[in-house]
Amino acid sequence: MRAPTDGSPTDSTPWQFLASSTRGAAHRAAALANEDAHAWRVFDAAEGPVAVAAVADGHGHRRHFRAERGARLAVEHACRFAEAHGQHIDRIGGESELEEFGREIVVPTVLEDWRRAVAADLDRDAFTPEEEAVRASAGDDPVIAYGATLLMALLGDRFVLVSQIGDGDVVALGVDGAVDVPVPVDPTLDGHHTTSLCQPSAAASFRLAVIDQAAHRLTALLMATDGFGNAQASEPWPPAVGADIASMLGRRGTRWVGEQLPLWTARCASTEGSGDDTTVILAVRRP
Question: The pTM is what?
Fold first, then answer.
């Protein structure tokens, strides 16, 4: 296994990563931390390098008082899963088999590892009396304190497997100019409540998507917390925003887009935008 990298142009992976995360104006005003987390890694596999990108959004509610930790643990264990199992992504024969791999292997493994990590964090650092009072007043299982969403993409040379629980957005930008939202919509998301890693039914709440680049080759895959989508003026926003990003990648190049990304997330996280923590990872396919 090669050491994890940041997706710099010298890597042999076909994917390059751009990322930015900005604390929301509402969190700054309340002296709260940025509860988003993100990470990406590249690993060697028999068929070639495999990449993983993960974005998590800790729930901004008093019952989820360790959501920042929950989000960080989620992306950490998504990357660990890819290190151990990501080599399978381009070995599996087709879309249905890869979706089964996602449902039967990826989801339960990442979820179980996250819950074990939460338990270990509690063993190392028990709830303070104030935290315990919040937990006890709601009658919550301790894992509720760590509640977070998770968007995770395994990116091979041919296949991309996306797993998502909760809100946030994944947008696929095709080389043919098509802009797609590959992950099925969750009808239970109402803008105020979200499905979560901390729920007992979390495994059943994951939605999956498989992109076969033999049929639908990508220019880029955008993954973002809901602070990004909620700040967009157009509705639905992915077609217009996705087309703009694809155009800028083509005209201005990856470096320029990477330099602009912190400005975009800062604008989204401001009082003129969503005011929420905003995190974006853009996985760009190299020519």
Answer: 0.93
Report the distance separating Cα 232 and Cα 81, nearest Å.
33
pLDDT tens digits for range 120-149: 999 999 999 999 999 999 999 999 999 999
The CATH number covering residue 151 comes to 3.60.40.10
- List, for residues 212-232, the tens digit of each pLDDT value: 999 999 999 999 999 999 999
Q: Report the half-sphere exposure of 57 (CA within 13 A, side-chain side).
A: 31
For residue 174, the tally of other CB atoms under 10 A from its CB is 17
39 strand-pairing partners: 54
In a domain, 1, yes or no: no
Which tokens hold the place of 24? 């929301």
5 found inside a domain: no
| Tokens standing for residue 177 | 């100019």
Token representation of residue 264:
């975009």
User: 4, 11, 77, 90: which is closest to 45 by C-alpha?
Assistant: 90
